[in-house]
Amino acid sequence: MKKLILLAALLLPLSLMSQEYTWETVPMDGSRTAAVKSGKIKVKANSSAAKVMKLVDAAQPAMARVKEVIGYSTEALSKKYPESALSNWTVDTIMEKVEELAGKKVHVGFANFGGIRVDMPQGDILLDDILSMFPFRNNLVYLELKGSTLRGIFEWMASTYAQPVGGVQVVFEKGKLASLLIDGQPVDDEKVYGVATNSFLLSGGDGFYLGKDALVKVVYDDLMQDAMLESIRKTTAAGKPFEYKSDGRVVIKK
Fold this sequence. Notes:
Blueprint: H1 2-18, E1 21-23, E2 41-43, H2 48-59, E3 69-73, H3 85-102, E4 108-110, E5 123-126, H4 127-133, E6 139-146, H5 147-159, E7 165-166, E8 168-173, E9 176-182, E10 185-186, E11 192-198, E12 216-223, H6 224-237, E13 250-253
Parallel strand pairs: 4-11, 8-13
Antiparallel strand pairs: 1-2, 3-5, 4-7, 6-11, 6-12, 8-9, 9-10
Helix pairs in contact: 3-6
């Protein structure tokens, strides 16, 4: 009897709530501005659902800024393991911006799949799409690492999980590092390489400790999010659509 009473108590609020609104399924992406379409949700006056809808509608003017169209993508792109056009663009953009900031050659770049939160839409790219794609306020970072340190990082990735990388051609086979080329050449354990990344990956983010054995470490005030926005805006200003491809930089053999 006690179990029946408890079940009834749990179901009662749900049954009452279900009477407050009806809805129609609409397509959604991961961005903030796509979450609610008021015309597709009908609510009863003075219900809790109506109050929520009122708050959502009231917030729309404040969201107008992020609905700015900043570019155009010829196709939809999503992050895919072990590499994809979207993840390659992410890490390549980090490398390009950090090289500009450092005034030094950047040979290798590291990013993380978890830092890319939503897909690139086909068609108009909103400011909100990029802010939602890269919501974290991670700083850009320049490092100098010995080749032996880089080799260790890629050996660790081989035994765990590959992440977005740039400037390299790497082959993982059966959980081992089979081949690592930097700028088309085998990694030199004694050479010092310029590395670009973000602050999240310096001290444990997604298992990375890129700052641990760095010979040089510079953390910039510039944010990764801003670098991605700058990349889209530059492409648009040049009169070009956003396009990117995967290139086989990461190969996993079983």
